[in-house]
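anyone else get weird line breaks when pasting these?? whatever heres mine. first is seq + tokens for prot A
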Amino acid sequence: MNAILRVKTIEWGNEKYIKGDGTPVFPDIDGIVEYTIALPDREIYFIQPFKRGASLTGRIWDWDGNKNEPTLRPSIVAEQPNFRAHFYLTRGKIELLSDSTVSVG
């Protein structure tokens, strides 16, 4: 399987993901990274919300404060039966871990 992982965009603030009642899905965050995994028959999208000083309460990743080349910790895993993407976002770039079955594009 040839699955390609990419950073789609980095959104600052929490205005993009809003519930039906108008409140943010992720209140009190600094931003969200949107990723895509391109598969031969479709694209899969997933997100990684982040906040400076986060402790992973409610699945919010810790951010180093750098807006030009953000680093988020800890690692993130996205998987389905036909792929596994396990990686860090380090200085704005995807850093794949050895158990990943995707490539970076």
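and prot B, same format (seq, then tokens)
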Amino acid sequence: MKLWDLRNERCTSTFKGHKSGITSVAFHPNANYIVSGARSNVLKVWDVRRTDEHVFTVQGHLDSINAVNFSPKGEYLCSASDDATVHVYRSNIEDKGFEYIDDFKDTHLF
């Protein structure tokens, strides 16, 4: 995964760690962290101030993750997967962890 400075049109950081294709990324509202979801069913959290390795990994989905997003204040993270679930986590990103809260399976929103 690469982080680009669009004003200068250059890559500022490269993050390595996923073993399969990244399908979704989201910035934490404090702008210091990025979460990425991948086909390998895992979420990885990255500190944009460090590029040597990911901060931690979150597992739980049974199939590819296709969407991730933080709540507006960053206190929750949601991830959606091809396993037909949406997982909700309480974000404790500064202490390097997410607390699993619940999942929603086969929920039809429309």
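btw re prot B: DSSP finds no helices and ten strands in the chain. The mean pLDDT is 83.
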